[in-house]
Design goal:
The complex is a heterodimer of chains A (about 200) and B (about 350).
Chain A lengths: L7 H23 L13 H133 L5 H14 L9
Chain B lengths: L2 H13 L5 H4 L12 H8 L1 H4 L6 H17 L9 H5 L4 E5 L6 E5 L6 E3 L2 E3 L5 H31 L4 H21 L8 H17 L12 H23 L16 H51 L5 H37 L3
Antiparallel strand pairs in B: 1-2, 3-4
Helix pairs in contact in B: 1-5, 7-8, 7-9, 8-12, 9-12, 10-11, 10-12, 11-12
Classes of the chains: A mainly alpha (about 200), B mainly alpha (about 350).
């Protein structure tokens, strides 16, 4: 803030104006103490002092009153502007962070869903595998049991047949009541047995 | 102020009037004796109005008794209380505790100084003293406020109290008056406009207090301020326009044939010069007339109090109080208008290209 610089032209103007005003004043002072009062008659002395006082006051105020006050106000305005700018920057930064966090959360959610889906698929696969395995094992057990049963049956048939031979021999020897040599008997029985159907029948 | 207070004050004014001149003046005439205008003005001041007076009944009795006494006395002395109050003088009326409650102090008379062949009387007058007083008060107020303002800023970050209020005025004048009217380079003129405003404001307000005198009600003071403004306006024009400043004096339209241009210049140049000179003239007359007129109205109303010298005096008394309140507003308004118009004139010439 600066005062208007005094230009040479203005220095020229000042005495011009002063002299222009003076005749009127001299006229006014002649009538000085007369009864008629002219409110419009200027007084050069008063004008001179007014000018001096005004200019001095202007210099004092322009140096000691307005600059410190306006500087303080401008500093405050600047501080406010800075605060506003800072707040704007903070807000932008926060928005950026929020967007980043949101993106991260979305990623995490997708990831979690993928993991869940994967887990579910793995579980399904595992269950299917285990079911399959169980069924195979069961089949194996069943097969083995069936084979065991068949073997047992065959053995039981053979056993039964031998038992029948024994019984037949014993029965025949008792019925015939005479002692034949063992070899002849056995031959006889074998002939009889071979006349029987060879395969085991369910009727047996 | 209550009605009984008004009555009591009226009674006080009449009963406790210092000089017998009041009693001698006839109620019909518009003269109030040798009572100084300043003392009269002091009596409408609020602190005296609030002084506890007699009871209403006693006051009315006193007023009637005074009226009877006055009508018996036929002598009429006409004293002009208005002219001394609104004109300048080489005397200063200082407050005094004894009747007539003022003491005239003669200011020194110096021998006229010869300046440029004219004898100029530089001896101080009442209005010199009051414009000086206004300047000193302005300086103390503003510099003190600026210091408090800076201190508050350092300590709390924001100003408080009076300095804060003053800051609001300064900022308003800077932003709304100076910068609005002078958008380019207006900051340079802020101290000038602010100084004008505060000096005129203090000078206006000094005229409203008892024993005060309105320096801005003197054409010499307002003319000087207007001439200073005129110089600042023209210098601002020269600075902003350079050689183009001459166009604000000599009308020279560039888009006309020379046959029209020349007569136009001859006709319009005096008009331009007159319009330049009219602005400071209007500034000076406006301030001077406003301040003088307000004081004349207040003094006339106070004169009516003594002319009526009866219970009817309450009416002009109330009106005088109301006009005084209006004058406080006018003191601010005229200072503001002077500052505003100065800014407008500077803005006009600076932005005229």
């Amino acid at each position: 803030m600066r005062l208007p610089r005094v230009t040479p032209l203005s220095l020229l103007l000042l005495p011009l104006l002063a002299t222009a005003a003076t005749p009127a004043l001299a006229l006014a002072q002649e009538g000085g103490e007369a009864a008629r009062v002219n409110l419009l008659s200027p007084n050069v002395g008063l004008m001179f002092w007014t000018l001096i006082i005004f200019v001095l006051l202007l210099f004092v105020l322009a140096r000691f009153a307005f600059p410190p006050m306006l500087a303080a106000v401008e500093a405050r305005e600047q501080a406010l502007l800075d605060a506003i700018e800072g707040a704007k920057a903070d807000r932008a930064e926060a928005a950026e962070l929020l967007a980043k966090h949101r993106a991260e959360m979305d990623n995490a959610r997708v990831e979690a869903q993928r993991l869940i889906a994967d887990g579910r698929a793995a579980g399904d696969r595992l269950r299917a595998e285990m079911l399959e395995q169980t069924r195979v094992q069961q089949q194996e057990l069943l097969d083995r049991a069936r084979r065991d049963i068949e073997a047992e049956r065959d053995r039981a048939i053979a056993e039964l047949r031998r038992e029948a031979v024994e019984l037949a021999i014993a029965g025949a020897s008792k019925v015939m009541d005479h002692n034949m040599d063992d070899a002849t008997n056995r031959k006889l029985i074998d002939r009889f047995l071979s006349s029987l159907p060879t395969t085991a029948t369910p009727a047996l | 102020m209550t009605f009984s207070g008004v009555l009591a004050l009226t009674a006080l004014l009449l009963a406790a009037a210092p000089a017998p001149a009041v009693a001698e003046s006839a109620p019909q005439s518009f003269s109030v004796g040798a009572m100084p205008a300043l003392v009269l003005q002091a009596m409408v001041a609020p602190e005296i109005a609030s002084r506890p007076g007699e009871s209403v009944g006693a006051a009315v009795n006193r007023v009637e008794a005074d009226a009877m006494e006055q009508s018996g006395n036929g002598a009429v002395e006409r004293v002009d209380i208005i002219t001394p109050h609104i004109t300048d003088s080489h005397e200063l009326e200082l407050p005094y505790w004894k009747a007539p409650f003022y003491k005239a102090v003669h200011l020194p008379r110096w021998k006229p100084v010869m300046i440029g062949g004219f004898a100029v009387d530089l001896s101080p007058t009442k209005h010199v003293v009051f414009i000086l007083l206004a300047a000193v008060l302005t300086m103390l107020t503003l510099v003190g406020a600026a210091r408090a303002h800076s201190r508050d800023h350092r300590e709390r970050g924001v100003p408080k109290g009076f300095a804060g209020g003053l800051e609001a005025m300064v900022l308003y004048l800077r932003e709304e008056v100076v910068m609005k009217n002078i958008p380019h380079g207006g900051a340079r003129y802020v101290p000038f406009i602010l100084t004008l405003f505060f000096l005129i404001l203090f000078a206006n307000l000094l005229g409203l207090i008892p024993y005060g005198s309105t320096a801005t009600g003197n054409i010499s003071v307002t003319a000087t301020l207007a001439i200073v403004t005129f110089i600042v306006v023209e210098v601002a024009g020269m600075r902003a326009l350079g050689a183009g400043y001459l166009k604000t004096i000599f009308y020279w339209p560039s888009d006309m044939p020379i046959a029209i241009k020349l007569p136009m210049t001859l006709i319009m140049t005096p008009v331009e010069i007159v319009s330049k000179l009219t602005k400071p003239f209007a500034l000076a007359i406006r301030l001077f007339a406003n301040m003088t007129a307000g004081h004349i109205v207040v003094l006339a109303l106070i004169g009516l109090i003594f002319s009526f010298a009866s219970i009817a005096s309450a009416a002009p008394l109330l009106m005088a109080v109301a006009i005084m309140m209006l004058e406080i507003f006018v003191a601010f308004l005229q200072a503001f208008i002077f500052a505003l118009l100065s800014s407008v004139f500077i803005g006009q010439i600076v932005e005229s290209h």
